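Show me any protein, keeping tokens residue-aligned.
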Amino acid sequence: MSSSISDSLPDQVTVSLADENGQPLPPKSVPTVKKTDEEWLKQLGEQRFKILRAQGTEARFCGLLLDNKKKGIYFCAGCDLPLFSSDSKFHSGTGWPSFYQPFAKENILELRDASYGMVRTEIRCARCGGHLGHVFEDGPKPTNLRYCLNSESLVFREYPAKGEH
């Protein structure tokens, strides 16, 4: 299944990277990340592969980043693209890390997901196509959106302490 994810990606995508303070840089065109299933499995390990490449979902209330309260950026575990900021994280009570907006809208792909007898909006990383979770229209202001993510699809990096640059 993951080869079809990579096959559907363009060769280049316009995304926003982060500066050393965790702020978005102007959008720029970068190559997409395309690998075979074997390469992804070797890089990610079995659990992350199941989520990022086979559209799995981790168990509720089990993700390591669910209760993370540190300030920083959440990056794609597959390709290191900045996806979400702690500034938009909120406690949703759903059992998965939740955010009301992405780091940069262009860094997220939204796809119709009609699996399990319901229609939802799946979210994926724009650079590698990795499955992140889903977005729902029941979040807090200012967006009223809830980006519900799998911890395994993310890598967190804390902002540097003031004066460390």
User: Anything to note?
Assistant: Residues 72 and 123 are 21 Å apart (CA to CA). DSSP finds three helices and eleven strands in the chain.
